[in-house]
Design brief:
The chain is 58% helix and 12% strand. The protein is built from seven helices and eight strands; from the N terminus they run αβββαβαβααβαββα. The strands form two sheets. A five-stranded parallel beta sheet has the order 5-4-6-7-8, sandwiched between helices. Strands 1-3-2 form a three-stranded antiparallel beta sheet.
């Protein structure tokens, strides 16, 4: 797996933390120094943490589970949507719907409502409705699509949460903690990493910083998905070989049975000839 480069993080501005007066003391182990009143994050530790998170995400993807990406801040929205879509993972970029994890069945009902509206559009039910009703349903569909469209394929609770800015997404983090879902997060110097299982100390405000970290993590997920695909192909090939071998065994037994009587028939004349020769021998005497 391609590892994250220190220089890439430096160039992306991952080392810039918040103002010293806004810091959270729990982030002290990850702060390298202070410059002009701003904390500088130790990128050597960031590199290690990215690699740890990437390895864990790869294993989750390899086991066929889902990672839910969450980022509702303006500068992270497009990046999250692009990166999560590239590895076919669900994401939330609009307002976090309260209870999305802890009250998941209700969220699924809303997603099903969206699917039922789509069905109405396709089966001609719309033609029997008034213009006002069509307008109301269309608005409802647009609202559902905006808030839940990106999680339409999430049929069960995700196996992990990836969060950009744990302060802004504190409700999502709390829900995941309550359900025991591991949380991966980019954590800045003003945040508390206490509730984060895989924290990545870095600038969570700069677009370049967010992008370089998400790229590394999503590349790891893509590798996990490829390995899963390869393993499934190998399993399928092995199963097919086993089935062929199972089918071949009865055919081989049948062939052996058919060959056995033929061999007996060929041996019979020789066996009969032996007694005949013995009977002729005394006559010669």
């Amino acid at each position: 797996m391609a590892r994250t480069n220190f220089d890439m993080l430096l160039e992306a501005g991952c080392h810039f933390g918040h103002l010293k007066r806004k810091w959270n003391p729990a982030m002290a182990p990850y702060i390298f120094m202070e410059r002009n009143g701003i904390h500088i994050i130790d990128l050597h530790k960031t590199v290690v943490k990215i690699d740890e998170a990437a390895d864990a995400l790869k294993q989750i993807a390899k086991s066929g589970k889902k990672v839910l990406f969450v980022a509702t801040k303006k500068q992270a929205k497009d990046i999250i949507a692009e990166k999560a879509t590239s590895v076919n993972m669900p994401y939330v970029t609009e307002r976090w719907p309260g209870g999305m994890l802890t009250n998941f069945p209700t969220i699924r009902k809303a997603v099903k409502k969206m699917a039922s509206i789509d069905k109405m559009m396709s089966d001609g039910t719309y033609s029997n409705l008034s213009k006002r009703e069509v307008l109301q349903i269309s608005r409802q569909r647009a609202k559902l699509e905006k808030n839940l469209g990106s999680i339409a394929d999430l049929t069960r609770l995700p196996s992990a949460l990836f969060v950009v800015d744990v302060l802004k997404e504190h409700i999502a983090v709390k829900e995941a903690n309550r359900l025991g879902i591991p949380v991966f997060a980019i954590v800045d110097t003003n945040s508390d990493p206490k509730d984060i299982d895989f924290m990545i100390p870095a600038n969570d405000d700069a677009k370049d910083s967010i992008e370089v970290i998400l790229t590394a993590c999503c590349n790891a997920i893509a590798e996990g998905l490829e390995e899963r695909k390869a393993e499934k192909a190998d399993e399928k090939a092995a199963k097919e070989q086993e089935e062929e071998a199972t089918e071949a065994r009865p055919r081989a037994r049948k062939a052996r049975k058919e060959a056995a009587p033929a061999a007996e028939v060929e041996e019979t004349p020789a066996e009969e000839a032996a007694p005949a020769a013995e009977e002729e021998a005394p006559a010669a005497e």
